Each structure stands twice: as C-alpha cells, then as structure tokens.
Amino acid sequence: MWQNNFLILLTLLLINQVCSDYLSTRNEILRAEKSMAVGGSITLTNKEKEANEILLRVKQKELQGVQEDIAKFPPARHFFVMKKDVEKSKLFSILQKLPKGGSLHTHLTASVSLDYVFTSIVSRENLHGCVINGRLKVKFFEKGKTNNLCKWEPIKDLRKKQATSDAWIKSQISLIHEGNPSNAYNSAHNVWNTFINTFATVYDMLAYKPVFQDYLYQALQEFYEDKVFYVEFRVNFPELYELNGTVYGYSEFLQTFSDVVQRFKREHPGFIGAKMIYAPNRALNATQLEQALSTYTTLQKSHPNVLAGFDLVGCEEIGTPLFNFYQQFNKAQNNINFFFHAGETNWYGFDVDKNLIDAVLLGSKRIGHGYALLKHPKVLEMVKQKDIAIELSPISNQVLMLVDDSRNHPATGLIAQGFPIVVCNDDPGFWGAKGLSYDWYMVYMGMASKDAGLEFLKQLALNSLKYSSLPENEKNQAIRDWNVSWEKFIDDLIKDKAKYQ
Amino acid sequence: MWQNNFLILLTLLLINQVCSDYLSTRNEILRAEKSMAVGGSITLTNKEKEANEILLRVKQKELQGVQEDIAKFPPARHFFVMKKDVEKSKLFSILQKLPKGGSLHTHLTASVSLDYVFTSIVSRENLHGCVINGRLKVKFFEKGKTNNLCKWEPIKDLRKKQATSDAWIKSQISLIHEGNPSNAYNSAHNVWNTFINTFATVYDMLAYKPVFQDYLYQALQEFYEDKVFYVEFRVNFPELYELNGTVYGYSEFLQTFSDVVQRFKREHPGFIGAKMIYAPNRALNATQLEQALSTYTTLQKSHPNVLAGFDLVGCEEIGTPLFNFYQQFNKAQNNINFFFHAGETNWYGFDVDKNLIDAVLLGSKRIGHGYALLKHPKVLEMVKQKDIAIELSPISNQVLMLVDDSRNHPATGLIAQGFPIVVCNDDPGFWGAKGLSYDWYMVYMGMASKDAGLEFLKQLALNSLKYSSLPENEKNQAIRDWNVSWEKFIDDLIKDKAKYQ
C-alpha cells in the first residue's frame, strides 16, 4: 500500500518537474523575444511602471473583441475610413500627449494638414486657378491672365462652379477622394500618378513667399501641438516668388526657411529646430545629378545649420536606381550626409529593392522606408552593424498601396528584431493626417506586439533624436530636454489615471 | 606638361580602383544574398545551367512590363480572378511538368478539384440534399426521408430550382462565389465561417464509402498528373457509411485509405505513396484531447505505414491555443510525431501567434503555415537550429484573407534567409485549384527573387521529400527516383527549347 502511494507521489513530482521545466523554457523564450524587440533594452523606473499599467490597460481595452470583429481594429483598415475611429480612441489621446521627439522624414510641401491649406491658403486673395487636362493648376498673381494653355480665374470663382467645387479642389491638393478609397485608386501605379500630380498642383501655390512662410510656420505649429519638437524636411527647393513676379534663388529660400524656423523657436519654448535634406527628383541624368550635388555642397557651406543632407525623391519603382549614380555618390560620400529613400517597394530582385544595397554602400545615415529590407538579409546585417536607422511611415505605405493591413507590414519583423526604427509621417497633409500621432498609433497598435508597453514608445521617441542630424552637443541637450517633458507626461498620465479606467 | 598628364592618369587610375572596389563589394553582397536564399547551396550541372537559361528567359519575358501594369502580374491579384491568366502562362506549363516531389500539407476532404467533385460526385445516384439555415446539407441514402429539421430531396431535383442552382451548389461545396471575391468576403472571420461550413457540407457526401474511395483515388490522380508523387494528408477521420446505413469505425477507414493508396501505387508506376496526419478539430477539451491522442497511439501501432503524426485543425485565431494542452502534448512528444498548424495569423503577441513557441517546444517536426514566424525571432532561431520545415500554402493564405498580394507574404523573408520551405496546397478543391503547380507558381513568381532560377525550384522539390515522414531508406529511394524524373525534365526542357523562345 505505501509503495503504491509512493509511486503515485513520485509520478506527480516528475510531472510537476517536467511541467515547470516546460513553463520556464517557454517564459525564457517570451522574455528573450521581448528583450530583442524595439524597447527591449529599456528598464522602466517605478513611476514608469505605474504609468505603463495605465497605458496597457487602455490598450487591452481597445483590443477587446478585435479578433472576432476586425472592423473594431483601425490599423487593419484604410486610413481614409478609420481615421475618425482613431480620433475617438483614448490610446490615441495618450499618444498625442506623449513627447515624441522628432520627425525625420517629412516632405515639406505635403506636411501641413489639408484643413489648414484649404481654409487658410486656398481662400486667399490673388490665388488663381485653371484646369488643364483635368488637373487643377493654382498660382498667386495680381490680375487674371490668360494664356494659350489655361484660362486662369480667381479661385473663388472656380469654387462656385459644380465641376470645380470645394470637394474637387480638395481632391487636387490631396489624395482624398470622396467615397471608398479602394475605388479611387486601383493600383500603386495609379495612386502614385495622382500623388505626383498633387505635388505639382501645390508647388506653385506654396512657392508664393508669404504663403510659404505661413505654411512652414504652420507645419512647425502642427508638429509642436502634437509634441514633436524637431523636424527634418525633405525638400526639393522651390523658387519662391512675389505677387509682382519677382522670383528668388535658392539662397533666398534657405534664408526664408531659416528665418521662419528661428522665429518659431523664439515663440515656442522647448522647440528644438528644423533642418532640410535637399531632395531633388530622381528623374535626372548624371550631369544634372553632379550639378545638384555641387549646388548642395556650396549651399551647405553657407547654411550648415539648415542643410542636413541629400536624398533623391519621386517614385522609386519606376525612377532611376541609385546604382546608376554610384560613382558620383561614392565620390561625395565623405563630404555629404546621404539619407536615401531605398526599397520603398514590394518587388524582390528588381533594381528598386537593390537600391537598399547601394544606400548602405554609399553610407546612407538613415534609410527612407526600407520596406523591402526583409528580402535582403545581408543588407540587414550591415544596417545592424552600421546602426542605420529605418524611417518608417506606415500610413504612407498604406495610402500608396504597398500594404493594406498594418499587421502585414514587414517592419513588424524589424520591430521584433529590435532594428532602430524611427516613426515618420512622410506626407501627412496629402491624406488628411496631422502631426505624427496617427503614424505612432498605427505602429503601436498594428505593428508591435500586444505586450509592447511604454518601453516601446520611449525607445521610438529616443530613436528619433538619437538618429537625427543634430550635432552631438545639441543632441545631448535635446535628449535632456526630452527627458523633462517625458517625466511630465508620466506624471500627468498617473495623475489622470481615473480618466483611463 | 608631363606632370599634368601624370596627375590626370593617376586620378583616373584611382577612380577606376574606387569604382572596381565598389562594384566588387556590391557583387559580393548580391552573391552572399543569393547563396543565403532557398536554393543557394545548390550548384547546377552544366545541363541544368542550360535548362536554367531557358527557364529564366521565360520568366523574364513574363515579368516584362509588370512594374508598369500590375494587372499583368498574377501573384499580386486574387487567385479567383487571376487563375485563368496563370493557366495561359508558359512558365506555369513548365512548373506543371516539373517533378515537384511531395505535398506535405493537404486536407484530404478539400483536396480534389471542384470540377471533379461537381461532375462526378454531386451528379451521382442516391445523393440527397436539403437546405437548412441557408446552407446545403448532402448525404447518400436510398430513399428520400424527411425529418423535422430538413426536407431531403434528390440532388437532381434541387439543381432544377433557381434558389439551389448549380452555381449555388458549387458555392456550398467550395469558397467560389460568382463575381468579385472581395465582395463575397469582407473579413478573414467571414471567409473562415464559410470555410468551416464548406467542410461540414462535403463531409457527409465524402464519407459514403464508394465515394470516398473514388475521391481519394482522384486526389492521388490529380497530384500524380501534376508530377507530385507523394502526399501527406491532414485528416479528421470520417465515419464511412454505406447506403443501407452501415457506419464503419476508424479501423475500417484506415484500411480503406490504405487499400486505395496501394491500388493507386500498383496502377501508377513511380508513385511513392500517401500517409495521414490525424488532425481532429482544436475545439476539444483536455479529456477529449487525451482520448484523441490515445486513439492515435493505438491506431498508429496497427497502421504504422499509414499514420505519420498528429495535428489539430480549425481556425487557429479563435480556437484553443496549443499551450492549453502543453502537458498532454509534452507527455506524448517522445511517442508521437507532431505536425502542428501554428501562427496562421497576422496578429502579434496574441495566443494564436504564441502557438509557434509551443509548436517548437513540443517538438513539432514541421510547422503548418507559420505565417507569423517573422514576429518571433527566437522561435526562428530554434526553427533553424532544429531544422524544422515550414509548410507554406500561399493561395490558402490569400483566399483565407491573411494577405492579398503575394509579394507581401512574410515567407518572402524566410525564403531570402534560406529557411526550409515546403510548398503545399492546403485545400485546393475549395478554391478551384488542382495539384500543386498553382502554389509553386505563386511562390516562384511572387515570393522569390526575380533572379531565382532552377536551383530554387530544385531545392523546393528536394525539401518536400527531405522533410517528409518517409522512413530513411524509403526517403533515400524516393530522392533517387526523383532524380531520374528531374533528369528527364531537364532533358525535355532543353529539347523543347524552341517552344520557349
């Protein structure tokens, strides 16, 4: 009898041992994966832990029922249709308050909210418009004029006509069409065409010097209100003009940019600043590129605090590959900081994703998009070894039809492996976004683990300063200042605890 | 003067050196990535190189213009709408002729083409149908009978009615709806509901013993014609029945399966065989699971050549996680080969993707789908170290709405890193496919590098035998036999060169 009891006891002990071994190995894997992911090396303070509990509670609440009903989960749906749901989210309101550091990949002429552009720029005196080949052209000048191609009219007259109503004008200065977005664009190629046309439409409107000053100021304002205190703009230098027809050169443009930024800093304590990455269109030949590099070098010497680097823009899939210019870039890489767009594509083995190889070999400090990185494991090794940040713009990738559901975004794999991600907004004004919080929401809710907490968000914010072009001393100061804002954010979150029950 | 010339010469030499350094580093990266990817360790023979040139020429030709017009690129579109384009492809016709080895993940009751099922089974004498809650039920029996729930009618009478026309019946025994597939299903949840209902509908029809025998034979036939000579079926054992109401137990089912496979082998030289992985639905409790494991163990002893292992099926996202049963599985893992479905999801940090951790810890020999693997880098390390194959079913993942464009499938990253991929077809009959070539096409054209050639395809075929459940000696023989078919395929491709110009 006692032998039987002993055997039963032994068996139970053995089962217990096997189970606890299994559980501890499993927990070890979960722990290891958490520590490998973005934010995994951050240890939260006690106060941060308290705030983290509040954050995770809000997050888990918003994730309730999403597996059964995907319509409850905004990151899986198109930004155009889910934006209003995001705005109702408590988690989004926390992200809006969170000091996010900087935005390192924003195209200047698509950076301001559509609301502001339509309400405060389109409505201005002296703006004229005409329609050519079904597209709107707009420009400021004093009196109506007609040329062979286009019949200019005051914009306020156009807005009264049914064919050129306000809704239509909005569709010309953004990608927003009424109705279902999937009916508006049937392919990446198609949406890119409209995208390029949109840049062309707004160009002449924004290059009017007084408008440009207001537009840039507003861009900074929208970032500032969204708790983004530093910006690096991609800019294909516009030729600013006056009503009387005066056209300015690049130098005047740089001075204007610098003046607005300085004024904004004076009027907004805590704001760190803004720089530009000169980014002409990639549709150029070798001679034009050499000219652009030379222009950049000259201007960078005279405006070292304004110009942070060089890039090429435009549709990468059909544009000139970086490889075509490797000799020019290679020669310049010791003197110019490159921040190349590379691998903004879902093709594999084509020139466009091979841009990733050249970007890394040409010493690119960061990579714009890098959507195809997971298809290039050798490049990924180099990215890790050289500590190159990846500029992730999730809403852009969705609107420009690389991916429809954020959960399928390849950066989910990069996040899991702890690559240095910086969240950017690319062209928020063109898709009805504003600031950086919408993109942060997509990344945090749709692309990070359900278990990711405050350590993940803290890492994103720190990355955006660490991988910025600020000189070392300014960067350190910026991180110290950010820490003060962060502490306050944590305190407020704890103080507002009741609001988030 | 000569000094100037000397300087120019020196500069040119230096530039030349820098350029050639750049190019050789770049080529080294391209070479390294090619050798890391699936197929990268294979060295082609001279004859294979000749065939590879033909293959790549056909491939490049079919890729012409796809970047400008995605409608020309089937893997980026839904299988329902692009299938007919694939069938016109020369590359597809090569893949059909290529000896593909085995299919290691096919659900038996969804394995046969819709055409055959509709033409040769639905039309049979004694099949009766009724409609309940808008769904078709079908069963074989001798005379019409009525019960409280359902009014049974001969299927040929139902087919004459508008509400239960042939098109509607097809929509009940497959996922194919007329018109645009994106209108038919608006979420993964929605398509999974129909998917589960479809299994329920066909179950009673296929469990009629004479039909089951024909169905299984036809499944093998369709694989054989598609140059697939070995199959492992996931099966939730049906209770076979006769017209007179006799119902058989599992043992009779196993014997019937074995008899059909043996007969098929005798009648089809070169065919290796078929096995089953017992896969009950994951909606069970611990007691039921223990019962299922015990049933499997008993049956496996009496049918060691028929039963290869154990798995659980059903929608993983809403089903019981493997972790709930880790004690039972852990106890059994030394005696039972597991082939778990795991991570068939785009969620991250949920129970469903954590199934990947348990699958690996429980010694799963292969992983079904593993769609979420890139989000689990620690699991990936273990998958590599333990050499666990990943059963990739690209069309299934598209139809069941994990991903719409194959180029975004996360297995692209696994392919780039050379993970052991086996291409499978999951449930071809439910989406109008047949055999394995459609899935191979999706993988080769949509998920591998543009530069991937014959070495990639050869690796896929070899993987499907290497990671099969064949005993070592049979596996070696199977690979030797496959080599003979492969040589013939290479010879034929070279002989038919003119056809592929």
From TrEMBL, chains A, B:
Q: Which domain of life is it from?
A: Eukaryota
Primary enzyme class: hydrolase
Gene Ontology CC entries for this record:
extracellular space
Where is this chain's protein located in or outside the cell? Answer: Secreted
Cofactor(s) essential for the protein:
Zn(2+)
Q: Which UniProt keywords apply?
A: Hydrolase, Metal-binding, Secreted, Signal
Describe the reaction catalysed, as an equation: adenosine + H2O + H(+) = inosine + NH4(+)
Signal peptide location: 1-20
Q: Which GO terms describe its molecular function?
A: adenosine deaminase activity; metal ion binding
Return the EC number.
3.5.4.4
GO terms of biological process kind: adenosine catabolic process; inosine biosynthetic process
Q: Name one Pfam family in it.
A: A_deaminase
* Annotated Adenosine deaminase domain residues: 187-477
SUPFAM superfamilies the record matches: Metallo-dependent hydrolases
Q: Which residues form the Adenosine/AMP deaminase N-terminal domain?
A: 13-95
Q: Which NCBIfam families match?
A: adm_rel (TIGR01431)
Give the protein family. Answer: Belongs to the metallo-dependent hydrolases superfamily. Adenosine and AMP deaminases family. ADGF subfamily.
Protein name per UniProt:
Adenosine deaminase
Q: What is the lineage of its organism?
A: Eukaryota, Metazoa, Ecdysozoa, Arthropoda, Hexapoda
